[in-house]
Fold this protein.
Amino acid sequence: MSRLNDLAAEIAKSTEEVSEYFSTNNLPQPSFEISAPIDAFATAPSDIQNARTKAIEASIELQQLLNGNVNVMIPDTNASSMRAIYRFKIANQFPIGEEISYSELADRCDLYEHDLRRLIRYAIVRYRVFKEARKGYIQHTAASKLLAESTSIQNVMALIFEETWPANAKSGYSLANDTPLSIYSFLASHPDRAKRFSSSMATTSESGMAALAKLYDWSALSPGSTVVDVGGARGHVSAYLAQRFPHLNFVVQDLPAVVAGSEMSGEDDAVYYVPSDVIDRVTLQAHDFFTPQPIIGAAVYLIRYTLHNWSDAYAAKMLRYLVHAMAPRGQIVVQDHMLPEPGTLSLLREREIRGMDLIMLSLFNSREREEADWAGLFDMADERLKLMSAKRLEEGSASAVIVAALEG
Ligand SMILES: C[S@@+](CC[C@H](N)C(=O)[O-])C[C@H]1O[C@@H](n2cnc3c(N)ncnc32)[C@H](O)[C@@H]1O
């Protein structure tokens, strides 16, 4: 028997004892519903409390083993949804047992509907605070009912969000680096750190690049076509595509500090250089994507995991410069996160992507987007720019390859 089996057996045995206790004593089983007792174990005898502790401990260890040694030490810093629920007294805005639409609730809390929705959808999958039984409408759960009704729980939240959390949160990027600048502006004046930062992107997910190679028909582009990789760091994605599609040329654009020194290859192991077999077809160019696009009429403008760093106004501005440079039949290919319909991914995947959405909110004041949000963003950039297709990398994936082109 492995440790995994031992733990699973321990969980099964202790849970059986606990569950049996509830049924033989005619007590309600623990649940997230509003009818559930605040503390199902309040009057349980010590042997049942012990069984409960054993089941919890075994499930924590099992979860940690299954998660692995990296995930086990990543702190859970994403408390912004609970903080917003506390601060805007969201649980108090509608009665227990009734449902309310996001738009009505947003009015009552004086928040943007799309921000309220993202905060609540994360709280649903992470904290079981609220539920969305019908799309677009939320109801209370046992936990949100407590937030609405229990003074002692409200005091606990006040302690966390007024006293402890602000102190933790003060280790943010600006404070840590003693700068009022955003991460990218700060790195622009620290070329060595900028290069390492961008090179760390080169170590991310080979499978994501493979999906990009597969989900867009690169081979259909005519020989000699140019692909502009906007915000392409030091060219790891373009190099990957260049190795697979020898008929294409790539221009990788990024901030000057990032691309600096890219022509001298290889003297620093920690920094990514385009491999020599494709160096003649992958050119690096310093370019700020908030200025007019210098490469006119490229077949494809590729933007990978970059638009999600920017709020709609900035993302639309960046896209508009591409629209101005695009030939009538050119295309914009985006690989980025695409938020799922609620409840359509596994709980863990949905937690991950909604957690990322809130990180985008606190780090960049930006957002992850649903398919309709992507279409809306293209429209905001230019009303002729249409979403042509959006394909998830694989079933259940939180990322997609999205193609946009000019209509007509
Ligand atoms: C999250 S990384 C994505 C890198 C790469 N596209 C990938 O898929 O791995 C975002 C990139 O955008 C670049 N970037 C940020 N602001 C920029 C700007 N104003 N102009 C050009 N590039 C910028 C960053 O330096 C960084 O390399």
Remarks:
- The beta strands are 99-101, 131-134, 137-139, 226-230, 249-254, 282-286, 300-304, 331-337, 385-392, 399-406.
